[in-house]
Amino acid sequence: MAVFKSVLTPTLLYGCEAWFCREKHKSKENAVGMRYLGNHADEYLEILMAVKGSSKEKRLASQFIARFFKHFPTYADQAIEAQLDLCEDEDIAIRKQAIKDLPSLCKDSKDHTHKISDILAQLLQAEESTELAAVHNSLMTLLKIDAKGTLSGLFSQIINGDDLIRERCIKFVTSKIKSLGHEVITKEVEDYLITECKKVLQDVNAEEFYQLLELLSWTRLGQTVAGQQELVDMIAEQADLNQDFEPQSPDNENVDRLLHCFKLALPYFSVSTILACFKLALPYFSVSTILAC
């Protein structure tokens, strides 16, 4: 079965497009021919090489790399690298096309989700608004394919990426995840999300802490007394109280931070919530003082 024409790249790519359209509309009994695509490795390699071609060739290559990706597992790493080259092209139209096609590499297998998510996380540093929107859309698509794998790539960059990527990854996770609902963020995924957020909380600034706390309060932690106690403990840890706490000392820099932490913790205070972590400071502040901060 002649699936591809091994000729010049433009003809090859257009031949692929025409062939795919024909196969798509063939009867069910002929669809078995799809199994034999793996016999055309040389032609797939030519498609990978097309990422060095003209603008038209690059756009078509992006689509076909993803479309036939599952049939050539031996060349998975090369295909991902070729797609990454397109994501870094000088032509923004090509970059956006390649970014849009990235999630398709994970459509039939979750093996590469972490890597693709890691790539998209790095691409969050894009400055052009439509390109950044394309990255957001691809990450959302990837989350619906494999939420846990996608989060692992994002948190990898939050922990190990540079400041700009870290900041944008945190912003993406804290602003987008809730919109997916618990149909996508299942209990297993939520447990992973909570674990990773706790790791990140070991080294955050005030804004990042607030963003992550808001996300954590959306999870099961905000729904149970035990979970709310965990949230209060996290807040108390940020307050960094110690036995030498003296709020009337003019040199004490902990007062403002303590007041903000009190305010964050108030929604989770109850008869059942243990406040031992704040007991040193409680005698010095009234509820009105805390709310006024």
UniProtKB/TrEMBL annotation:
One of its GO terms (cellular component) is nucleus. It comes from the Eukaryota. InterPro entries: API5, ARM-like, ARM-type_fold. The keyword Endoplasmic reticulum does not apply. GO terms for molecular function: RNA binding. Keywords: Apoptosis. The keyword Isomerase does not apply. Transmembrane segments: none annotated. It holds the Pfam family API5. GO terms for biological process: apoptotic process; negative regulation of apoptotic process. Belongs to the API5 family. This is Apoptosis inhibitor 5. It comes from Timema douglasi.
